[in-house]
Design a protein that fits this description.
alpha+beta; about 375 residues; five-stranded parallel β-sheet; Jelly Rolls; 11 helices
Length: about 375
């Protein structure tokens, strides 16, 4: 993973979060670290060599996430250990054991709600956990002795836990998939679906009809680029659903034509009222409403098959070369013909400047219409 690839991945996660927040949805991405990243000191020479690139990539994206203030819930943060610690993963399996699960999900509760689940974690019994241990092309059944922590879980996260998190959609990989017992103690009847489900598009669409207030997307670390480029992309099942929810929320905005002094055009030559000829790298800058949750509607026609991109303004420009970044953006259609973008942003974007790249280069941008407005902050809206 290059620095640029890591930056784009983290930027896309924050863009998903912003677009979801505009619709009143709290989107959080969580990452389960690969076993060899947590335990590099336990690898044999051959495995250590094979895992070397993964470990380097792991350190790279985590360092960038740290300095950029990423919202990613990184379960690596609670997987600290030394040689005397109890293991957090099974010896003959790539997943967390019961102690690893408890550490990860205590962290998840803290990140989502601010509540601390404390208490001393002590095992109360031992069982044989059946795993499939790979040997060449074979998988050999194996029973591994492991600790259980039933008494701790029943005390700190009882089935009747009064502070369960409601109205949540969880899209997950295998780490959360093998943790459903503890997940159901944390959430009120969560909607759960795994990445890779052949019916993912339809199921996500159905879940969004329930208007979830929270989305947790969990991936094992090695699949992070694949998830961001797949189901969490703007054309993927979850990305599309988030954009659609934002567009529906934006319909509530009362819009008026954006004043010309709040617009800046770069590499766009106006040939008639509302009709432009684009040169290379055309850009439209829109000064957003100064209060509330700003919203915009942009529509235009074009005959070229080049994508439209909405660049969200970066408020904290630490380690950035400017106020916009390719990862922190929304990709729209590249189909020729009429295009329309409706967007509602969280209130922290009030007074900032949105950048639209209508096409890539050298083509018509006609019948351009830009409208803007705002909605009250979510707290005020709920109070009314």
């Amino acid at each position: 993973m290059t620095d640029r690839e890591a930056g784009v991945i983290l930027g896309r996660i924050e863009a998903l979060r912003v677009i979801a927040l505009g619709a009143g949805i709290d989107f959080r991405m969580s990452v389960a670290p690969d076993k060899e990243v947590v335990y590099p000191e336990r690898l044999g020479p051959a495995a250590e060599a094979a895992a070397g690139c993964k470990i380097v990539s792991s350190r790279k994206w985590r360092k960038l996430a740290d300095v950029s203030g990423s919202s990613v819930i990184d379960h690596m943060e609670v997987m600290g250990h030394d040689f005397t610690d109890d293991l957090l993963y099974f010896r003959t399996d790539t997943h967390w054991n019961e102690l690893g699960k408890i550490r990860a999900f205590r962290q998840l509760v803290r990140e989502l709600t601010g509540r601390e689940i404390s208490g001393t974690i002590r095992p109360n019994r031992t069982v044989a956990h059946r795993t499939d241990m790979p040997k060449g092309i074979l998988r050999i059944p194996y029973a591994e002795s492991t600790y259980l922590y039933d008494e701790y879980i029943d005390k700190e996260l009882p089935v009747s836990y009064p502070k369960k998190i409601p109205n949540t959609l969880i899209v997950h990989d295998s780490f959360y998939g093998v943790s459903l017992d503890i997940i159901k103690r944390m959430f009120v009847d969560p909607d759960l679906i795994n990445f890779g489900n052949p019916d993912l598009d339809r199921k996500v669409e159905e879940f969004f009809q329930k208007r979830p207030k929270r989305i947790v997307a969990n991936t094992v670390e090695r699949y992070l680029p694949q998830r961001i480029g797949g189901d969490l992309s703007w054309s993927g099942a979850v990305g599309k659903a988030i954009v659609h929810a934002n567009e529906e929320a934006a319909l509530e905005c009362v819009l008026t034509d954006t004043a010309r002094d709040r617009l800046t055009f770069t590499n766009l030559d106006e040939v008639a009222a509302g009709d432009f000829a684009a040169r290379a790298d055309p850009q439209i800058y829109i000064k957003l409403a100064e209060r509330g949750r700003p919203c915009v509607r942009i529509s235009f026609d074009t005959s070229v098959t080049q994508g439209t991109f909405v660049h969200l303004p970066i408020r904290d420009q630490i380690n950035r070369n400017g106020p916009y970044f390719e990862g922190f953006s929304l990709a729209v259609t590249n189909a020729a013909g009429p295009r329309e973008i409706r967007l509602l942003l969280p209130e922290e974007f009030a007074g900032t400047t949105l950048r639209i790249d209508p096409i890539a280069a050298n083509g018509p941008v006609s019948k351009l219409k830009i409208e803007s407005g705002f909605l009250p902050p979510i707290e005020t809206s709920l109070a009314n």
